[in-house]
Design goal:
Layout lengths: L1 H22 L1 H6 L21 H15 L3 H10 L4 H19 L6 E8 L3 E9 L2 H4 L2 H15 L10 E3 L9 E3 L8 E3 H12 L4 E9 L4 E8 L6 E2 L1 E9 L7 H17 L11 H16 L5 H19 L14 H12 L3 E10 L4 H7 L7 E2 L1
Helix pairs in contact: 3-4, 3-5, 4-5, 5-8, 7-8, 9-12, 10-11
């Protein structure tokens, strides 16, 4: 009986002491804040930890809103006590940091986007790290929007030829990506940064080109491996000039479309033999001579072998000397001669351009060298 009374008294003293500690701010703030309510009673606070089913629902909703990686979505929700609006804001804030960390990684995948009007065509290359991201709707919308913006770049001072449009031309410019998850006007750099954060990869605007009609004729384009209109992995632009401004253009447009496809397939590096540099010719001649000398034939025969193989070299790299891919019984020079007779006016190729996603990028980044923007006449 005495023991029971002492025990009861000890428990009463302990509870009173504990209540006094719980009611103190320092105890609630530093020891067990999640267990104490304002009245000092020990209650578990479930407000900061959502039920598992609700957590999954919030993760799904925020992922749909932002397209950010699941790992980043969950981290943001946990940080913001499962407040979805606060987490979305946190993701946007941290997106800049995440994108900057990824910017050092090689981005050799991606898409080319092409935009065109009656007198001008523009193509840009938007890179990412994997083809999975290149298939994403947001990435594709960004690429298409950048091509449309490139079409507006003023290159009036460029009389002819392919006009390079590097990332510096887009500085300060604004665009609307026109995608539900990235709607509203923003700067080009901010749009790229936000998409990089959403995709969880390095996203980079690598290069661009524009070509304008300098006179009467046709501007033709072609996209290879095109998932949708205006996008592809290989692009070409070719400008055909017609001397007589009264000549019909239907046949010229048909041949222009075929030549644009030819440029993609045949990969010409020069328009005419005269445009091949003497250094390139001498280098090729030296290689061919070494190969011919290995045959052990006399010098005169070796010289003939070198000249014959040099003609073959021109047929491989010079557009006007190449066999036409649609009909290999004639070359491009003969094709244009036949077209000129058909329309009753001289027709010539003014310029051409060929671009391919990631071409030379891995080697250039490894060597730390500047890149040649495209194959262009």
């Amino acid at each position: 009986m005495i023991y029971s009374q002492c025990a009861k008294r000890s428990i009463d003293i302990f509870c009173k002491s504990l209540r006094n500690h719980v009611q103190s701010n320092s105890f609630r703030a530093s020891i067990i804040p999640q267990y104490a309510n304002q009245n000092g009673f020990l209650l578990r606070n479930y407000g900061s930890e959502a039920p598992v089913s609700e957590q999954m629902s919030l993760i799904k909703k925020l992922r749909e809103r932002t397209s950010a990686p699941i790992k980043e979505v969950k981290a943001a929700l946990v940080t913001c006590d499962w407040d979805i609006d606060a987490a979305q804001k946190d993701l946007r804030k941290r997106g800049v940091i995440l994108a900057s960390k990824k910017s050092a990684r090689t981005a050799a995948e991606g898409l080319l986007a092409l935009a065109q009007n009656e007198n001008k065509a523009a193509v840009i290359e938007l890179n990412c790290e994997t083809d999975f991201v290149a298939r994403n709707d947001i990435f594709r919308c960004l690429a298409a929007s950048l091509a449309k913006l490139a079409l507006l770049v003023d290159n009036s001072q460029q009389l002819s030829g392919a006009f390079p449009i590097g990332p510096e031309y887009f500085e300060g410019l604004k665009l609307d990506v026109e995608h539900p998850k990235l709607s509203g006007e923003r700067t080009v750099q901010n749009a790229i940064t936000e998409v990089a954060a959403m995709m969880g990869e390095n996203v980079k605007l690598r290069r661009g080109y524009a070509m304008s009609m300098s006179s009467y004729g046709v501007l033709s384009t072609y996209l290879h491996a095109s998932p949708q209109p205006g996008l592809g992995r290989i692009a070409s632009i070719i400008s055909l000039e017609v001397e007589n401004q009264n000549a019909p253009l239907d046949a010229v447009q048909r041949v222009g479309s075929e030549l644009a496809m030819h440029v993609v397939a045949a990969k010409p590096s020069f328009l005419t033999k005269e445009l091949v540099s003497s250094d390139a010719i001498n280098n090729e001649r030296e290689i061919l001579k070494s190969q011919a000398e290995a045959s052990g034939k006399p010098p005169m025969a070796i010289e003939k072998m070198v000249e014959g193989r040099l003609r073959k070299y021109f047929e491989e790299v010079v557009l006007m000397e190449q066999k036409f891919v649609v009909n290999d019984s004639l070359n491009v020079k003969t094709l244009l001669s036949n077209l000129s007779k058909e329309v009753g006016s001289p027709v010539k190729i003014d310029n051409f351009l060929r671009m391919e996603v990631g071409e030379g990028l891995q080697g250039l980044e490894a060597a730390g060298e500047p890149e040649d923007l495209a194959q262009a006449a």
